[in-house]
């Protein structure tokens, strides 16, 4: 997976796959083609693609035969300043689908019942992190900055620190645990002989970090924390996520913490801060004016003339709260029959992990709810829910956002939720209403939204009624406030803020305890 790599000027960044591998097809000329995605497009990732010097490392996301790797490596380096990391198929599957998405993903989103711990998956997770660290070390020089991205690579910081400064620098007790982490792993690298100085390591988690009571369920809870805190800077989307992380460090590692970081046993200090991500709004702001999108908007307006449109765009994942959304719409239509035939929910559910039983069961539940609600409130001429289980190209997605009166996000847990930002950016003309779950990280940033508890169907139903009856002047006032935030706190601002803070710190955790660091 390489086009989604975070690229930044003057130093190396590493990133694993953010939610699912971007499936790419090798072409004879060495190029890789990818299908379009309907959720989380490049808007939040290519925040510094204009940098004169940038470098990133990523897992390819699919198997590339050894004989084809040279040409792929050449194209990646020339066109993307990216170095591919090749993982054995079994390691890749157990690291990504096994430990990352069957242990860390459900745990971090407060679904511990979905966890399925397997020692072989933990071994693969450690192996993948070691392989990444060895690849990074082939490029690191003195005065480099390394930015590690997301929960797939939470051991990478301690592996890098051990390689850069030597295992003894971690302290006697941690050195033993560091060596245990490497037991059973296959190393493909020569020992590091060059002394590196002033190498800074940052880590950013794109998911929530759960409360310590939830996190402590993890069988390898100590190892994951130790892996992460050997950074100079750890970043989260919200203050709550950072606070939970610090609490876990205190309760599980017995380390002293301040509101802005963790004191390691060696005296090193890992600073912790909040840096809520944004999008690149320009494409969504100008999109509705482009001829293809404008044409599609006109077609949709004619098709749904006289109807209030509610849009929902989610991956079909148990954290996205699609059943809760449908249940709330049913309550709304029950209690406000005058709106039957006048309100339509267009729900885009992007397929996700369709080979996993929990996701198959979720799809069945959603299909049953859609059928029941449409059967109950629909007529020959009208269906209250238009459900699509597929991805949409950007033109269609942008038109759908722009033509809608309300965007409804009911995530039960969500690191941020950038769909809300994309909707706001397209709404310069219509000035639609944003309804967002209090459990989405974006709810803490988007002042002007209607914030709801997705588990309270009545509250969400009331919010739908408030949104579809909201006077235009109130809509305009709320939208202006929301758009100013989305426009200012862009992906570029997020990346620059994190990098600026990391650059300010001293390498190796030799930083002073200060006040809480937050972006903006």
From TrEMBL:
<feature type="region of interest" description="Disordered">
    <location>
        <begin position="16"/>
        <end position="52"/>
    </location>
</feature>
<dbReference type="Pfam" id="PF00982">
    <property type="entry name" value="Glyco_transf_20"/>
</dbReference>
<dbReference type="GO" id="GO:0005992">
    <property type="term" value="P:trehalose biosynthetic process"/>
</dbReference>
<dbReference type="InterPro" id="IPR001830">
    <property type="entry name" value="Glyco_trans_20"/>
</dbReference>
<dbReference type="GO" id="GO:0034605">
    <property type="term" value="P:cellular response to heat"/>
</dbReference>
<keyword id="KW-0328">Glycosyltransferase</keyword>
<dbReference type="GO" id="GO:0003825">
    <property type="term" value="F:alpha,alpha-trehalose-phosphate synthase (UDP-forming) activity"/>
</dbReference>
<dbReference type="GO" id="GO:0005946">
    <property type="term" value="C:alpha,alpha-trehalose-phosphate synthase complex (UDP-forming)"/>
</dbReference>
<dbReference type="GO" id="GO:0005829">
    <property type="term" value="C:cytosol"/>
</dbReference>
<dbReference type="GO" id="GO:0004805">
    <property type="term" value="F:trehalose-phosphatase activity"/>
</dbReference>
<keyword id="KW-0808">Transferase</keyword>
<protein>
    <recommendedName>
        <fullName>alpha,alpha-trehalose-phosphate synthase (UDP-forming)</fullName>
        <ecNumber>2.4.1.15</ecNumber>
    </recommendedName>
</protein>
